[in-house]
Automatic annotation (TrEMBL):
Domain FAD-binding positions: 4-329
Coiled-coil intervals: none
Protein name: 2-polyprenyl-6-methoxyphenol hydroxylase
Keywords: FAD, Flavoprotein, Monooxygenase, Oxidoreductase
GO molecular function: FAD binding; monooxygenase activity
Keyword hit for Oxidoreductase: yes
Pfam families linked: FAD_binding_3 (PF01494)
PANTHER family the record matches: GERANYLGERANYL DIPHOSPHATE REDUCTASE, MONOOXYGENASE
Length: 384
């Protein structure tokens, strides 16, 4: 089966969906609300499950060239600098760190030129037994399926699932930044009620994130850089230095939300993908990875047919249990890592875990999430 699709949202999930559809011989029009295409945010890591999806999209080699191995999961520290677990020199790591913009660019290059229309804010949609029609100010388009990949505050989700709960504030806030740095291996520093993450990035940079509990969303400061530095001024090197080296205008402050489970990701010829379906906290590093999985599974289902409706139901059946379990797990991890009461228990458990067992968990198949394999996508059609 082949056809035409509309993808709402030009972020990592939306572009991955368009690239996957292109791989199976479909045409995909991506509608992006922003006037200029780009990816917000700073850095992230991708686990083996996500990298296999990038291989399925034929951009895995380019992605690995743009990435830097990060030992963030193997270097666990306390604010005074002591190590709870430490990666040995030369230890392999399954995690690769990216600047979000680099991965976004690779996915954009994987879709045909002219596939993305910016400055297009969807205002309505209508579907019947044959097609879906989406409208925006001054225009409309129709396709076989519509893929809503427009983020945690998805317009597609609101139009078709108006009673779905809004994003849920998780009681945590985060500061993010990218600073010049060379040779950092990546680490997580666990403090009482907070943690500080470091990922090395290409071009001698490092991504950092400080996550802490906060009773209400929307708390902001005149000087966000000074605010976050005040939280970690006495933490070990290089944490204060990384923040100090970050331009003030490049320090981002966000509140952490996720989505409560939806009863379905599909309504007829419309499917939700990525954060529009299952936005999750960053505590398992799986937000973008699960979006990549969605894209490959969706394309494989459409390639197998026999109809759009059947394919989308298959996608929903396969993706909803896994993604909703990941949301729950990330939510629970976040509660533990930003709970002062849980800090002593967590650090004790990490200390007591044998290093051999810890390292076994950091292999590419070290946990059920990382072991996932994508379905096969048919090879691109040969040009006539």
């Amino acid at each position: 089966m082949n056809g035409q699709a509309i993808v709402v949202g030009g972020g990592i999930g939306g572009l991955a969906a368009a690239a996957a559809l292109h791989r199976i011989g479909w045409q995909a029009l991506v509608l992006e609300r922003a006037d200029e295409l780009g990816e917000i945010g700073a850095g992230m890591s991708q686990a083996p499950n996500a990298m296999r999806c990038l291989d399925a999209l034929a951009v895995g080699a380019q992605a690995r060239a743009a990435a830097v191995p990060t030992h963030s999961a193997g270097n666990l520290r306390l604010p005074d600098g002591r190590y709870l677990q430490r990666a040995r020199p030369g230890d392999p790591t399954p995690l690769l760190a990216f600047h979000r913009a680099d991965l976004h660019r690779l996915l954009l290059e994987a879709v045909p030129a002219g596939s993305v229309r910016t400055g297009t804010e969807v205002t309505g949609l209508h579907q019947d037994r044959d097609q879906v029609t989406v409208t925006w100010k001054g225009g409309e388009a129709a396709a076989d399926p519509l893929i809503g990949a427009d983020g945690i505050r998805s317009t597609v989700r609101r139009l078709l699932w108006p009673d779905a709960p809004p994003p849920r504030y998780l009681g945590r806030t985060a500061w993010l930044g990218v600073a010049p740095a060379e040779g950092l291996p990546g680490s997580v520093t666990m403090g009482p009620g907070a943690y500080f993450l470091i990922h090395p990035l290409s071009r001698d940079r490092a991504y950092w994130a400080y996550v802490t509990a906060c009773s209400r969303p929307g708390v902001r400061h005149d000087d966000e850089k000074a605010a976050v530095l005040g939280h970690v001024r006495n933490w070990h090197d290089p944490i204060p230095a990384l923040i100090a080296a970050t331009p003030s205008e490049a320090v981002t402050h966000i509140d952490v939300h996720d989505l409560d489970p939806l009863p379905s990701y599909v309504d007829g010829r419309v499917a939700l993908l990525g954060d529009a379906a299952h936005a999750m906290s960053p505590d398992r590093g799986q937000g973008a990875g699960q979006s990549l999985e969605d894209a490959v599974v969706l394309a494989a289902a459409l390639a197998a047919g026999p109809s759009v409706e059947t394919a989308l139901r298959r996608y929903d059946t396969e993706r909803r249990p896994r993604t909703q379990a990941t949301v729950r797990g990330a939510r629970a991890d976040g509660r533990r890592t930003t709970s002062p009461a849980a800090h002593r228990w967590m650090t004790t458990m990490v200390r007591l875990m044998p290093a051999t067992l810890w390292r076994k968990g950091l292999t590419p198949d070290g946990n059920a999430t990382w072991r996932w394999r994508p379905p096969h996508l048919p090879a691109p059609r040969a040009e006539s």
